[in-house]
Automatic annotation (TrEMBL):
Pfam families: GGDEF. Residues 537-669 form the GGDEF domain. SMART domains: GGDEF (SM00267). PANTHER family: DIGUANYLATE CYCLASE DGCM-RELATED, REGULATORY COMPONENTS OF SENSORY TRANSDUCTION SYSTEM. The chain crosses the membrane at residues 39-59, 66-86, 115-133, 140-155, 175-194, 206-224. InterPro entries: Diguanylate_Cyclase, GGDEF_dom, Nucleotide_cyclase, Rev_trsase/Diguanyl_cyclase. It catalyses: 2 GTP = 3',3'-c-di-GMP + 2 diphosphate. It comes from the Bacteria. This is diguanylate cyclase. Its EC number is 2.7.7.65. Keywords: Membrane, Transmembrane, Transmembrane helix. CDD domains: GGDEF, PDC1_HK_sensor.
Amino acid sequence: MWYTSTPVVRHYRLLSQGLTLLALVLAVASLTVLDTRVASLPANQTTLALALIVAIGQWRWTRKGVFTSALVLWPLCLCLVTLLFGTCAPEDWLSLERLSEPFRWLTTPSTLLDWRPPLVELVVLTLLTLGILARTRSSLGVPLLHMSCLLLLLLDQTPLHHWLPSAALLHAHSLTVTAVLGLLLAGQWVGVVSGWRPTRDSLRRGLWPSTLLVVMTLALWQYLEIQADGELQYLGQREGRAMEERLASEFNDFRHSLQHLQVFLEQSPLPPSTERWQHLTRPLRDHFPYLATLRYVEVTGGNVRSPATTVVPRPTDMPQPAAVPPPEAQITTLAIDAPAPTMKITLSLPIRRPGGKLLGHLAATLSLSAMAENMYTHPPSGAGSLQVRLTYHNRLIKEWPMEGHPASWTVSVPLDAIPLHRPDNKAATVDTAYLPLELTLRPDTRLLTRLRSRLPAVTLMLGLLFSQFLYLTLFSQHQMASQHRALARSNGDLRREVRTRHRLQQQLSWLADHDELTGLPNRRHLQATAQTWRARLPLSVILVDIDHFKRINDCLGHAEGDRVLKAVGRLAQETLGDDGLLGRYGGEEFLVIIPEGRLAEASAVAERLRRAVRQAPLAHHDGTPLTISLGVACQDQAPLDLARLIQQADQALYTAKHQGRDRVELFVDTVDGASDLDTPPFTA
């Protein structure tokens, strides 16, 4: 065909080299020449550096430098797989924070976590590297690798990240990085698409179902990303509510202290003097450092005067309290200093006599930024940190800076901590108006990575792996089906194949029922035969064990042990004849099953076997003759319980071992139906 001819393939190869070279130049230019905001981010610099290495390996591959390409890409593949494992595994398994400690001097003030590429680009780089290392063979799943890369790159540039803030996770999406990865993908695909022609049917059979699975995986991944973002939002809201409670608690503590002072002044017969006022307000000034001013405003004949005032060091333009506040309520007002964005809160409480007569007001001015000082405490070093901003109508009141690299994720929480107008001794209701404060939380990359669920990343990786397995399975099945159809057209080869398989099946069937060393029936065959003889009662079993067989293996070697096993099996088979079925039960043990044989007959057969082995020219390393111990048991009533019967023979065998070996012992029930099975076996 024209698209597989030599000139066309050569043109494809030249186009692949051009696309790869363009990707290489663009990556180098982005790292060295272009000084854009996106290219200067640590994660994007790492992605471009890794893409540059992939481009070098792919360039050598297009130039038929297979060895050089593998030499470059295998270490890179190991590095990428390690990064993927660190992204999916729990923090305790592979902590990039701990791995970055030796490189702290190189990455300061960032960490390896800040330099790690985002998940999508990391997966694309891994797939491109695996595609080259797999020699771009369709039989190894490279077409699906390319399709997965294409879908991931398209998804990476969707507007999803505008309404899902945490999906970007630690980086700003770069069109330059996507262009470099897209050029590498196009160059790799163009260079090999003509070579997939011979397997196009198998490729189509495996590609489309596995691609559908990839699409479903990406959809599930995005759904889990949304769920993970919701969990982060919940954590941020919870942290914000905790800060709100601390701020509200601080404000309420001050308000309650001020109310105690209000009660004291209402019970005092005269207004306080200056010295008395300083003495009364000293505990408030000491306990509440954010108290700016505290005034006692006396109302006399409709006139207002301030006989007692406590002034804490403050700006000269501190807002003054209202001249005559309404007598029936507590008033909270807000003012902003003109020279600096310092916010002050003024709190006023009425002073009344027991009869209800208004004497004056107790007015306090608080510094909101100082009061919010204890809202947030930085976590221990190395655990990640938050950037916390407290604002009022977008005007900054207080900011706690972070230690690490900021992540592209924030959460805003409105604070209902300071009521603007609330009657005394009444709880807040839904109609209570609060000071419109807003708290903005922004974690650094370490904290966000630690808090974020690994489930989306694990789901993505498992889905891609399962889709790859599906492709390989379908592709292999189709290839095998094609081969089977070709074999079906050759009758001669098919007949030879059938005969060969039949012979192998017979061998396997024989091996399944016989011991390969001695040629005797194995345990499976013995049990199956005993079940066919379950009506031929009484049925006796003889369990044979070679005495001190371990000494033969230890002193003479396992080869001599195998020879002894074969000799004993052959000798026992000749001695037994047609009186029963002999098989190897396991290790150095043999089992004899005698249908319609009573205990006395089985005992005679066992004695005959013992003498035959005793008289055989078989000896240990020290010249002592080889002996065997035998346990005999019999069952004469239905139903046949082969397992119990063998256990009884084993009990008798242990008795023979215990009483000196080279003997035959019979299993006999004791009085009142109890048996030797009720006692623990002897130790050989």
